[in-house]
Automatic annotation (TrEMBL):
<dbReference type="InterPro" id="IPR025495">
    <property type="entry name" value="DUF4386"/>
</dbReference>
<feature type="transmembrane region" description="Helical">
    <location>
        <begin position="56"/>
        <end position="79"/>
    </location>
</feature>
<dbReference type="Pfam" id="PF14329">
    <property type="entry name" value="DUF4386"/>
</dbReference>
<protein>
    <recommendedName>
        <fullName>DUF4386 domain-containing protein</fullName>
    </recommendedName>
</protein>
<keyword id="KW-1133">Transmembrane helix</keyword>
<keyword id="KW-0812">Transmembrane</keyword>
<feature type="transmembrane region" description="Helical">
    <location>
        <begin position="134"/>
        <end position="154"/>
    </location>
</feature>
<feature type="transmembrane region" description="Helical">
    <location>
        <begin position="161"/>
        <end position="180"/>
    </location>
</feature>
<feature type="transmembrane region" description="Helical">
    <location>
        <begin position="91"/>
        <end position="114"/>
    </location>
</feature>
<feature type="transmembrane region" description="Helical">
    <location>
        <begin position="192"/>
        <end position="215"/>
    </location>
</feature>
<keyword id="KW-0472">Membrane</keyword>
Length: 230
């Protein structure tokens, strides 16, 4: 049982860190570098000249979807002893989020196909905007997932409460910010300002939790031989 839990912690930690690296490449480097939401023509030229890089970005998004599904199961395996129903619900929310993200990625494939078909720049940018829109809706769900993780972390005796509260704060920001983008789109600058302020806890919450999971797994791995010798 303890070995299974250690494996779930190790798998979750590694997958979460891999997802962060892939997201940094797919969105932070490829998406932000090639796409200018204020210039359809510039975006179109970038995608024409860097089509292979854009395809690599899409592949990274696909890998993130797979890892999201993997993390949903492994975190449930690690946290189910705290509260089985809440853990299962939290995992289910992440699974639904993964499929919403997959639906968003379809629009990136559509944009790539439009560029290859020499469609207009505005049509290409519209597909890219659909990706952002669908993904933003998915991030509302992702926020609820983090809220569930936070509650489980706070309720459990094993996880430091700091991570539980940080996950709760990050989940609240994710859900609140992306609900605002959907419901009050006219307040773009205000929402962007709040998102900038909240970016640190939003980014650090899952990454910090991932490193704690790895620490927990490695600590148990090395403590078992010591316990056997004593």
């Amino acid at each position: 049982m303890m070995s299974d839990k250690r494996n779930m912690a190790l798998l979750s930690g590694l997958a979460l860190i891999a997802m962060a690296l892939l997201a940094g490449f797919a969105y932070g480097y490829v998406h932000s570098g090639l796409i200018d939401p204020n210039s359809p023509e510039e975006t179109y030229r970038n995608l024409q000249s860097s089509g292979k890089l854009f395809s690599y970005g899409i592949a990274a998004w696909g890998a993130i979807v797979v890892l999201d599904l993997l993390v949903a199961g492994s975190l449930h395996g690690f946290l189910k002893e705290v509260n089985f129903r809440l853990s299962a619900l939290t995992a289910l929310i992440r699974i639904v989020y993964a499929f919403v993200l997959l639906a968003a990625v379809v629009h990136l494939l559509e944009a790539s196909a439009l560029v290859e078909a020499a469609a207009g720049a505005k049509e290409v940018l519209l597909s890219l905007q659909r990706f952002e829109w669908v993904w933003s809706q998915g991030l509302v769900l992702f926020g609820f997932h983090l809220l569930g993780l936070g509650l489980l972390a706070v309720r459990g005796s094993e996880i430091p409460s700091f991570f539980g509260w940080l996950l709760l704060v990050a989940g609240g920001f994710y859900t609140g910010i992306h609900l605002a983008k959907i419901m009050i789109p006219g307040y773009v600058q205000e929402i962007a300002f709040i998102e900038m302020i909240a970016s640190v806890p939003m980014a650090f919450a899952e990454i910090g939790f991932a490193f704690w999971l790895l620490f927990r797994a490695c600590r148990q791995r090395f403590s078992q031989p010591i316990a056997a010798l004593s």
